[in-house]
Fold these 2 entries.
Entry 1:
Amino acid sequence: MTDVVTPPTSPVSRERSKEIKRLSVISTARQVRLLSRAELTELTGLSPATLTPLVRDLIAEGYLIERGPGASRAGRPRAMLEFNPRAELVAAVSLEPSRISCEIADSDGAVVAHRAVRLTGDIVDTICRSVPELAGDGLPALRGVAIAAPGVISGGAVRLAPSVGLIEGRPIGESVQRALGVPVVVDNDVNLMAAGEHAAGAGMDVADLLLLHVADGIGAGLVLDGQVRRGARGAAGEVGFLPLDPAGRGHDGIGPFEARWSENAIAERVVALAPGRRPDSPVRALVALAATDPRAAGYLDEVLHAWSRLIVSCVCVIDPGRVLLSGAAADLDDAAVDRLQGLVTAAVPSTTEVRRAVLGDRAVLHGAVSYALSAAAAGLPTLLPAP
Amino acid sequence: MTDVVTPPTSPVSRERSKEIKRLSVISTARQVRLLSRAELTELTGLSPATLTPLVRDLIAEGYLIERGPGASRAGRPRAMLEFNPRAELVAAVSLEPSRISCEIADSDGAVVAHRAVRLTGDIVDTICRSVPELAGDGLPALRGVAIAAPGVISGGAVRLAPSVGLIEGRPIGESVQRALGVPVVVDNDVNLMAAGEHAAGAGMDVADLLLLHVADGIGAGLVLDGQVRRGARGAAGEVGFLPLDPAGRGHDGIGPFEARWSENAIAERVVALAPGRRPDSPVRALVALAATDPRAAGYLDEVLHAWSRLIVSCVCVIDPGRVLLSGAAADLDDAAVDRLQGLVTAAVPSTTEVRRAVLGDRAVLHGAVSYALSAAAAGLPTLLPAP
DNA sequence: ACACTTCCTTCCTACGGCGAACGAATTAAA
DNA sequence: TTTAATTCGTTCGCCGTAGGAAGGAAGTGT
């Protein structure tokens, strides 16, 4: 566990093919939750004889729990096996400007423990101390760590990236990985949200989607063919820089589009329309205002037009099929979403659904879970027969 | 070969793992071209004992050719094995408005035979007759067929898609696949070009790229993480529909952007600037004119600005790292490409290279070769250890 | 000519997958 | 209640493949 980086033997198979079967059983069980060995034979294609010892191992390791016999029409009843989500834990670490928040979740995305730590010393140290503490005696079940950082991760513009060390995702990830001995993924928070909605939210049923996140800036997360795509330098989804608005002027690190149409920019206009304190959700406030104030309605329509041009641009480039509105954009009401859908449909060659994201704050967590679980299974894509 | 769709046995391995080793040896040999068994042990991780019979088989099947002994510093000289590109043939079929052109190529992309057939009867029939004829006695080595069709393939807008039957890629592909018994891929010509440049052209050294093809319309091909990405409905890269130009008006099947900045549109302006016949290459003509005529120089700059906005849009969404100019855009001279590069760099958060595609007409062919070869290896992604 | 090095092959063993037979646990029928 | 029928799960044993070890092959250097 400490040294041997490259096991000099085991080139292709034998040990490997065993692992493949293990993983195929685990992932099947994770999906179905409660099943019998007989169902496993059908779903994985493995023979019963192969499954018997394998399932025995998995029960011993806590992945599966033997439940009572299930219903049977005729013949011996199936002995049901339940997947134990607690057998695999995942840590999701979110880097925020002055603190880090850390959550331990099981493979369902259910939070087992969480804590926020003020950022004092070295980030890597803090993470490597907090995660084991928080995991407690579940530490051996830890399968991966996902670290969410704001801004562009590897290279690219340094946008919203707080202070030192965070810009380079690699060093942090590698250090933590060495210290904790489990796979670590570092990514943009928006990318994690996209992964989360894809794994457990409004994108579960599709392989391609675009998540548009409107906050202080505007960013997009991209899922194509079932995977988050980051582009060559990790700057995919930097849609705030789109040259859609001749009037928009970007400045260091802020793109021309997001300078005019981000949540901040909208908040300023909303305050001008309805003087007072800046509302918590400028978009929701604007939608409410628009019902009575024609000027607000006009401005809302401007916003929707701007966002629709943004969406149309993305759709023309990658054809995601579905666009999820996240952050401030998720505060739109049904009528406004419909309006946006209409604007997009009119301008785009391919049919595209526009809807709200559903996970909200928990999207990052679910994304982290899905990253960490797939990192554990990395390198072993399915060789199974289609059922 | 005719019936058995799902082999009821063979769930995961045994037969499979043997095939994996075969393919790993073949693909290694394809890259290295001339190597010994000893090098194969290093590169594939397979033991010499495993390789001996495997290599024997491959020699018998014609994949490898035994050459004389290689140089040796000390000890027994290595018996060199040469990869035989002719062992795997590929057919590339290009559907054009009134004819189909068909090429047989080896796995280097070297054309072994080609022919153009006027389209008379059924397309599928024509293909299924032409390919075996053209392949001749090389037919058993045929590993795949790639069919390039203009326009959007599965669903999406029907753009440039000639007449009947072509719109739906699936039926044609499946029919041909059934008839010829080899994997068939049907795709957009621009996607194939992108795959070609990625496999054998200006994108060999990168995993992500965007190919911008300017012709009658404007389309882009997208390679992300080493694969062509088509989006949910196959309409990825329909960048002619980008809402970048308030003055652009699209009409049925033509996007607003390409309506103003495609090769056709440019040709009209060039004819206006220099009355006469429409030049073969309007862009090259424009570049030449711009050297002397200030109005032409101004218009060229407009075109470059427009294209740069297009590129910037794509880059913001997917961050390809490299953009290849194809079709009419490849007719720009060095100065114009530099200018374009400058415009892009100024507007984009991530560093992006802009350069010309290098394969020209042969891009589609190379793309077809790469598709067909990877279709043959499909479902068996690398499980090999990193070297 | 001899040792030495490197490459390739053959022999042999160990291990895992899966077919087949068998025991187990229930329902339906006699 | 006994018997048959049915479906599940397990144990046994054959087979095939992988890869270690040892040995032959074909060179180089002294």
Entry 2:
Amino acid sequence: MGAGKTKRMPRAVREQQMLDAAVRIFGQRGYMAASMDEIAELAGVSKPLVYLYLNSKDDLFTACIRREARALTEAVRAGVLPGLSADGQLWSGLRAFFDHTARNPDAWRVLHLHARTHGELFAAEVAVMRAEIVAFVTHLIAAAARDAHRDPHLPEGEVAGLAEALVGAAEALADWAGATEGVTAKQAAATLMNFAWAGLGDLMTGRPWSPPEEPEAAPAPETAPEATTAPEPVARAASAQAG
Amino acid sequence: MGAGKTKRMPRAVREQQMLDAAVRIFGQRGYMAASMDEIAELAGVSKPLVYLYLNSKDDLFTACIRREARALTEAVRAGVLPGLSADGQLWSGLRAFFDHTARNPDAWRVLHLHARTHGELFAAEVAVMRAEIVAFVTHLIAAAARDAHRDPHLPEGEVAGLAEALVGAAEALADWAGATEGVTAKQAAATLMNFAWAGLGDLMTGRPWSPPEEPEAAPAPETAPEATTAPEPVARAASAQAG
Amino acid sequence: MGAGKTKRMPRAVREQQMLDAAVRIFGQRGYMAASMDEIAELAGVSKPLVYLYLNSKDDLFTACIRREARALTEAVRAGVLPGLSADGQLWSGLRAFFDHTARNPDAWRVLHLHARTHGELFAAEVAVMRAEIVAFVTHLIAAAARDAHRDPHLPEGEVAGLAEALVGAAEALADWAGATEGVTAKQAAATLMNFAWAGLGDLMTGRPWSPPEEPEAAPAPETAPEATTAPEPVARAASAQAG
Amino acid sequence: MGAGKTKRMPRAVREQQMLDAAVRIFGQRGYMAASMDEIAELAGVSKPLVYLYLNSKDDLFTACIRREARALTEAVRAGVLPGLSADGQLWSGLRAFFDHTARNPDAWRVLHLHARTHGELFAAEVAVMRAEIVAFVTHLIAAAARDAHRDPHLPEGEVAGLAEALVGAAEALADWAGATEGVTAKQAAATLMNFAWAGLGDLMTGRPWSPPEEPEAAPAPETAPEATTAPEPVARAASAQAG
DNA sequence: GATGAATGAGACTTCATTCAT
DNA sequence: TATGAATGAAGTCTCATTCAT
């Protein structure tokens, strides 16, 4: 039943099918509530085959986490355009992050929700990925500080906290964008960028951060199709990298 | 077994003991991995009594969520000192929030991690609490905007996103403070306050937000026992309401 | 809760309340599915009191069976008018039987359904009652045979079988009357009387049995309010006891 | 354990083994008192396999009822010889009925006792079967009435009652034959046939019904191996179909 | 006379996992 | 490569029954 008799596929392909199914089921049910039966059925194979290839429920979950963690970091890494200023890099990284999470909601749930919920071992897997991202953000913050000619003004531990806050805000907005109708990845990124870079204080005194020109696809920059966050093009000095 | 034979307690007391045990077990294992056996044992009663009083695993979990959600919101509500400026209120609220989560790590895990992980019904329970907090933050942001004489400058939806980001950052910092040795609630609050109010941009140009005078306990403000975040007492205008 | 605080009743009264509740619950749920909790609640007392007075679930069930079996046999015994001919006695006994079962459906279910379903010991209790009734019917049949001047024409074992059949038919009709709207006890009795006394053969050749005059309550015998079974008053010789 | 290790049987076979065991246990203990453990053990398999194949205790019970109800109706249907007169058909049907119930006492208990005792849904399952049999009997009675040239002499509702009485008597006799040493299916059938067709009145005046010639197995009809009920071959007019 | 508090035992059900083919 | 057949272990929940007051 299911997909009929699509038998005899090469191992690598079958494995990916299984992981696809597993990510979906794990993402929707959580680790414990997911059953190997359901995963095998969704993958269109028999349960013993899942065990033959992936060994155990634990290993299967770990494999899911690894694959999706790698996919997410790669997506962000690929999204960050080198050579930009710190805020430009952050902006592009956030865009990539929100794009990826929006496109892979189950994977995002696995990483953000379920992996942290169940067991130190699984949590450690994601912790590695998260640490990598936090490190990247930390580096960006430090770089920005250098750009501002302000030597190690921010103490070590403080920067770590700031990076945590930034990443946490990003995660919450990813959840929020995923749950709220009509919020695009771009809007989420812009909101976060404003929040993080300008801060509420500046936002309220009318000095929001504004995104750089988009060289990617949009041919007509003067009419933003999706209303972005910055109502006033009064760019702050720090973000005007060409200035 | 367990605590010997502390038998025949009035129902109300026993129920609280059970909830205490349940929050602990649920917080450490998650909903599904927690077993009623373990909870009953930790509570020092037999399993049937748990069912007699709390009805089912679902109901027990819901009762935990409700009790802890109420406790957290009450703590925050009680922590926010009325009559302060917007940033003063935010600061005091954050202090209370980080204090409470630091003191009740299992409850925090139940609310933030496990309740959202398992089932729409449980998620809905916390969603109510979270919405309440988000609403409070939203209100603060709007009030601050008014204080800054900038009428509805920030569009509706945008404020919602900012509140989400702020709350998300707070949640992440609560996790982080709970997991990192040597990070106090006060530090976490200060870090977040800086991040949110001043923004990275201002932080790097040397204009951090600074907390108001603490009339509560600290008699000597010039020597902060726990090194707070604000290295330079160059208060921003908005926060210096007395000025 | 429940019936408020109707406390301090004499033991005999309380016991009957408990038996009433038990018969109702047992009758509706069966022995195993009935719970002592439910019985105690319906009786308006606490569970320990039920145990204090009736000792155990088994004993409670046995007490129900005994009380209701005695009530049924007494009702039938009281209904059979002495001095009548055999068919007159059978007719009056059936009337009493169908009346009682119709008025006490739960008791009837306990005796006929549940007591026989659960355990040799309970079955033995009803078996005694049933044997008594079967013996009575057997006696009637034998008496009728004597009246017909046909000495032991029907062999011993055969009469036992006939009595079983007659009682079985009565039981089935009691169930049927209880389940079918608009079938009165009297109709059921008449149907069975016809079936048993005349037999299908005679019924179809137009010689049904007809009930004797009713001296009890009905003042106008020419207009039967409930259409009885005998459409043709062609009484058979055997039933005309006055002849 | 049990029957050693008769492992790896095709599913269809195992299912029948499980149903066999279930009918036996259910028949002896009743629905509620039967435990899945016991059934699985008697079937020689582990409990999970029972659940894998039959899904739940409810479903297992329903499967038992369906299988046995079908078996019983088929047995009766197959036993009724077409082309016979009404009484001939009734006689052959009763023979088949008593044979089947005598040979399958547990199945009979399940259908007659336990299925009606527990839950409307189970009762409905048997009700269908019983209704089918009652309808058959009703049809026979009506056919006999036509044969006797007596047009709709018996009113509609009355025939229903008669059929109920007849079926009820059959059920009681099946129980009785099953419980009484030395009562054969044939004797039970003959007793009921006499009772129903001739009626007590005729029986006592010496005009019993007599069974038709047995073309099946008995070569010597003059010496009945099992003493049948009819002592005198004085056939009644209605039963002598050839005139 | 009456009950709130408490539990040992056992029921149904599910799941991850493995043979044997 | 792939699977139908099978199970040990564990989990949630209910129930009859008893103390201690």
